[in-house]
Design a protein that fits this description.
The protein has 195 residues and is of the alpha/beta class. The protein has seven helices and eight strands; from the N terminus they run E-H-E-H-E-H-E-H-E-E-H-E-H-E-H. Strand 5 (106-109) and strand 6 (116-119) form a beta hairpin. This is Esterase.
Length: 195
Amino acid sequence: MNNLSILYLHGFNSSPQSLKAQLTEQYLAKYYPGVTFYCPQIGASPQAAIKQLEQLLTGNSEQNWCLMGSSLGGYFSTYLAEKYQLKAALINPAIRPFELLTDYIGRQQNPYTGEIYMVTEQYMQVLQALYNEKISKNRYLVMVQTGDEVLDYQQAVDKYQDSQVIVQSGGDHSFINYQTMLPDIMAFFGLPAHD
């Protein structure tokens, strides 16, 4: 694929410094140096995040985009994949974060960046407005681990049942041994296997 660009969306209270983002960037640099990797610090509010990500995608529309998303980033990736007809690889994706994150309403601090911000009721309403009840078939590669202590992996299995779903026993929300899945992700994006 010419001009392939991968946009990696980190999760709630995370950053481009997260381990999965770093491992992905290193893997691409080693095996697929022609692929452009984007992993921005996503805005703290859903409105800011989606506006920022849509500007990136539409401002570079000549590129062939594929999405990767972890946790809340998986939720945003699903919204963007449906809107722009893109392929997306999701790692332990959040399915209904507007329900999951109600415990976090109030003051938050991102442990990576130190940014302090507020999670409000409006934050949840905006998240809910991004929800896609129905999703396209064969647009997603979804990877979950049954030991995820944050999300119910079965929700993802049910939501993405018409997609490629990989369920691993055990693990946790960080997705243990994530780097071993990178060849599967790149194959899903149509990249040739490396030696």
